[in-house]
Each structure stands twice: as C-alpha cells, then as structure tokens.
Design a protein that fits this description.
Strand order of the largest sheet: 1-2
Shape: flat
Structural class: alpha+beta
Strand content: 5-15%
Number of strands: 2
Radius of gyration: 20 Å
Largest sheet: 2 strands, antiparallel
Order of helices and strands: HHEEHH
C-alpha cells in the first residue's frame, strides 16, 4: 500500500487536485475582483472578492483546518461564533470612559 504524502492528504482534505491547487496558489493575485462600496460617513471601502474556485478552497481551509483548531482566550470576542456585542460590552459597564477607535487602513501594507 502506498502511503500518501502530507501534501496529498491536504489536497484530499480540501477537495482539489494537485494541478488545481498549484494553479490557485500561483495565480491568486489574478483571482480577485476588486470594487468599492460607499461608507456611511463618506469615502469608500475597497473590497477584494475571490473567484468562486478560490473561495471554495478558502472556505474548506476555514471549516476543516482553522475553525476546529480555534481556541480563543476568554476575553476574545471578535470573530467568535458564540459571542455577541453584549459580550463585548459587559466588561465595560460601570466605567466612566470607553475609548473607541478605528485604525485607518489597518489591513493595508
């Protein structure tokens, strides 16, 4: 019996062939559609949306690798399915001040 390599197991887990994975990894920059949407207070937000085949792989990575291995700290609220805005507010109740900031272009290099 032939033992599969780790990369072959990854292809199986993600539901892609080696050729598909290679193509997606080498062409990722060309597999996004970029557009702008208006912000409530003026200006625009730039959105880069992946092509369907790349999105499928990203979702598989999230569902089969990242999500099952995500163990957030107790004080972590953002992107935790079991937490809500109420969980975010509760530790701050009774404080005289709460600082709210928006880091401009936080995700840009």
């Amino acid at each position: 019996m032939v033992k599969k390599t780790e990369i072959a197991l990854l292809y199986d887990l993600l539901g892609v062939t080696a050729q598909e994975f290679y193509y997606l990894s080498k062409n990722a920059d060309n597999l996004y559609h970029t557009f702008r949407i208006p912000k409530r207070r003026g200006g625009y937000r730039v959105i880069s949306s992946p092509a369907d085949n790349l999105l499928e792989i990203q979702r598989a990575i999230y569902k089969k690798i990242l999500e099952p291995n995500f163990y957030p700290r107790a004080y972590c609220v953002g992107f935790v399915h079991t937490k809500s805005i109420v969980d975010n507010v509760m530790p701050h109740l009774g404080n005289d001040y709460v600082l709210k900031i928006d880091l401009k272009d936080f995700f840009y290099q």
